[in-house]
Amino acid sequence: MKRRHGSCLCGGARFAITGEIRGVGSCHCSKCRKVSGTGGNAQFIVPRDSFQWLRGESDAMTFQRDDGWSVSRCNTCGSPLPRSYDGQRFWVPGGLMDDPLDTDVKRHIFCASRADWDRESETAEYHDEYPPALS
Q1: Residue 30 pLDDT > 80, yes or no?
Q2: What confidence score (pLDDT) does residue 16 get?
Q3: Do the beta carbons of residue 74 and residue 9 sit within 8 Å?
Q4: Distance CA 31, CA 28 (A)
Q5: Is the pLDDT of residue 61 over 90?
Q6: Distant-in-sequence, close-in-space partners of 106: CB < 8 Å, separation ≥ 6
Q7: How far apart are CA 96 and CA 72, in angstroms?
Q8: In what order do the strands lie in the sheet with 14-18?
Q9: Tens digit of pLDDT for each residue in 108-124?
Q10: Which residue, 123, 122, 52, 64, is CA-closest to 92?
């Protein structure tokens, strides 16, 4: 069975996932946009028995809103961390993965809340490294 590893930006939190990753979901709700500072959060879900903390779980800090919505972050670098909300599954931020996922985005949710600038554009540029300065 395939085993993939992930970590936060500083490497203080590390984890492993065993088994298939069935696809990434991208949430565009206002909470995910605010907590990420981007157009949304890209995450995938794995069963609890497929997820293993290798280190750093105790260094996580959790912010919880009054409505129950929460996010966990590395106390050192601030990266969002995997979290189980129901004790059965882990929600894993896709950007934390060090190994390829061998899948793609399968679902976009809360698209009615999507930022007006978060759209595919035929005029968008793609660069493999830093682009020339915008003028």
Answers
A1: yes
A2: 98
A3: yes
A4: 8
A5: yes
A6: 22, 23, 24, 25
A7: 13
A8: 3-7, 14-18, 51-55
A9: 999 999 999 988 888 88
A10: 52
DSSP string, 29-42: SHHHHHHHTSS-EE
Instruction: Give the pLDDT of residue 125.
Output: 84
- In the block, residue with structure tokens 């919505």: 69
Task: Report the mean per-residue pLDDT for the chain.
Answer: 92
pLDDT at res. 120: 84
Strand 41-47 versus strand 89-93 pairing type: antiparallel
Whole-angstrom Cα Rg for the chain: 16
CA distance 133 to 122: 20
In this prediction, residue 130 carries a pLDDT of 84
Interacting residues of 5 by C-beta distance below 8 A, sequence separation 6+: 14, 15, 16, 17, 54, 97, 98, 99
Bridge pairing between strands 3-7 and 14-18: antiparallel
